[in-house]
Structure formats: structure tokens, C-alpha cells
Amino acid sequence: MKEGEEDRTIFVGNLPGAITRKELARLFADCGKVTSTRIRSVAVKGVKLPKEQAGNQNLMRKVCANTNLVDEDSKKTVNGYVVFADTKSVQEALKLNNMKEPNSGLHIRVDSSKPTYDNKRSVFVGNLPYGIMEEQLRKHFGEACGGVDNIENVRIVRDNETMKCKGFAYVLFKSRDIVAEALRLHGSTCAKREIRVQVCGRRYKGARGNEDDNTGGRNANRYEGRRATEGATKRILNKMKGKREISSKATLLPHKKRKTHSERNAAAKSGKKSGVSRRDAAQTKVNKRVKKIEKRIRTGMGKTKR
């Protein structure tokens, strides 16, 4: 991107896959003079490259895009960028956020080239299928949150190479009050999957308080949802209990007295377990037995009497 071009650029998401650069420029012609457009996030089928260019993903994507080798089964929408001649046109274009694309009827997303995210107006959506589309999420949350007009943006996180959904997304609402209604969709079914709906960002910086009645802690009156299961709570309590028992035993046990040098030598000669390994003790026992037999042979003990 050229210097000074970033302030004159907008991001356009959830565009139909068959849209062209001229059609994209025509969408925003009423906002001001358009200098250039770009189409991005196209799902391609792949093409064989020469050996010297093997592994060059950027080149492969360019070749597939120019030869129309597009994989519409994995992703039917694309993203784009529009560059205007002045910054005033950008403000006019941002007002067209959530408008319907004339040919496909998709709700397009219009944002600045570096969008800012508001965690307090967003929810995290997990356990999504790989082939889910933005319109499906928009419809699912719109039915429970007072209509699709209350949704500002839907952002599905996709893989850079396959352009398939990674299994999670973010939904940005126009008001913080709608977040509480969206959290009630936790465990609901969307695209034949039971989805997870959670708040975004860290909310517990101080004491957490009671999760059931939202008492205590910072931001106690806000709906936070259950963050831990009963089994996890039991494991934590048992772990803490075990640490306390170990520390109490350590304080009650007396310190072991260290043996002197003479005591260690006596223990080694006697072959006791204290300070002597089992192998050394067994060898000492064998040596004593051998000496005893040699003594009996020398003294003539054990010979047959005549």
C-alpha cells in the first residue's frame, strides 16, 4: 500500500464470489471517485507450479485467480478493498455498512482498512463447521437479538490457504445491551452444530465473586456466564487439600539425625540396611560364610571319626 493510501481505503467483506473489480467500484461510485479496487480471500483449487517455484503460495493463488480456478464449494464469498481519491469519500462509504449487495442479497461489511474491535460489544462463537457462511451466523443471531439490523459485523476466522472456517467467529453488535441476549444462545444449534457463545476479552481482573448471582468482584452486575464445571472445581479443591496435608506433615516430622563416621563404619561391617546397599550386604554375608568354611577345613572339623 502506497504512502497516504491507507486513510483513503476501506475494507469490504462478505462479497459474492463472482464479483469483479469493476462491479465493486460501481457499488461505491456514489460515495466519491474510486481510484482502485482489489479482490482478496479467494478460495482456489490449486495448480501445479514449476520446480523452482514450488511452495510459492502467493504465485499459485495469483495463477488460479487469473485462470478462474476458484473453489466455490469451500467458500462462496470474498473480501475486497476500495481506494478513494479523498478521505471524505471514506466516511460516506462507511455509512453503507450492512447494506445488501444488489445481485446476491448478501449483507456486505464495510469497515476501515485497519478496523477497531470493541470487545464489550462482541461475542465469541465456537464449535462452528468449516463450511459456515457469514449470512448463516447473521440470521441465527438476528432472530434472537431483535433482527439483523442490530448486528454491526460478523467476522469468521478462516485459514489463509484453504479459506475454510477455523471453527470460530466473532459477532459485533451495535449496542452492549444486546450482548446479554446473544449469550443466551450458548448451546443452541446452528448449521447442525451445538455452538459455544462466550464474552470476548478478560473480564475478571479482581475477585471473581459468585458466578450464580453475579455478586462481588469487578463488573459484578454484568452477565458473565459459568466459567468452570463442577468437576473442575472439585479437582482444584482436592489439589489444594493435598498441598495443605503435605505441608502439615513436613512440620510435624522430626529432623533426621546425621550419623557419625564411626557409626557408618560399624553399620557397614555389620551389613545392616542403614547406609549399606543390598548388594554390599549380600557380599559381606557370603564372605563371612566362606571364611567360616575355610576355618573348619584348617582345624579339621567335620572329618569322619575312625
What's a quick, concise take on this entry?
The protein has helices spanning 21-27, 57-66, 88-94, 134-144, 177-183, 230-252, 261-270, 278-299, and strands spanning 9-16, 34-40, 77-84, 109-112, 122-126, 151-158, 165-173, 189-190, 193-194, 196-199. With 306 residues, it is α+β, with helices and mostly antiparallel strands. The chain has two domains: 1-116, RRM (RNA recognition motif) domain (Alpha-Beta Plaits), CATH 3.30.70; 117-227, 2-Layer Sandwich (Alpha-Beta Plaits), CATH 3.30.70.
Describe this structure in words.
The protein is α+β, with helices and mostly antiparallel strands and 306 residues long. It has two domains: 1-116, RRM (RNA recognition motif) domain (Alpha-Beta Plaits, 2-Layer Sandwich); 117-227, Alpha-Beta Plaits, CATH 3.30.70.330. It is 32% helix and 19% strand. The strands form three sheets. The chain has a four-stranded antiparallel sheet with strand order 2-3-1-4, covered by helices on one side. Strands 6-7-5-10 form a four-stranded antiparallel sheet, covered by helices on one side. The termini are far apart. InterPro entries: Nucleotide-bd_a/b_plait_sf (IPR012677), RBD_domain_sf (IPR035979), RBM34_RRM2 (IPR034221), RRM_dom (IPR000504). Residues 221-233 have a biased composition (Basic and acidic residues). Residues 206-306 are annotated as: Disordered.
